[in-house]
Design goal:
Largest sheet: none
Number of helices: 5
Mean pLDDT: 83
Oligomer: single chain
Length: about 100
């Protein structure tokens, strides 16, 4: 997808909180289930958009296209986060 050898590992929201990983900032587009923020980003009614033709793409396609776009834009000084800090990831994996 993006040239990484990373392996997906599902982790519980409780383990994420116990490792002091911050929702959204340390893990973009993630908020703990049951939180107001989770509801705000995941419970929106998209029925009108779907009725007018919105289709969800497979995540692998989205990641591949986003990675290609990120590599093609001129350097602006703005960067995407590289992901979780090594120390936070180690705490999670140790969990």
């Amino acid at each position: 997808m993006a040239g990484s050898a990373a392996e997906l590992r599902w982790t519980s929201p409780e383990a994420i909180a116990a490792a002091d990983v911050s929702p959204w900032t340390d893990l973009p587009v993630w908020a703990p289930p049951g939180s107001d923020f989770h509801a705000a980003i995941h419970a929106g009614d998209v029925s009108r958009a779907r009725a007018t033709g919105l289709e969800c793409r497979p995540v692998t396609e989205t990641v591949t296209d986003t990675w290609a776009w990120q590599r093609s834009v001129p350097e602006t000084g703005l960067t995407l986060a590289d992901g979780l800090a090594e120390e936070a990831e180690a705490r999670l994996l140790k969990g």
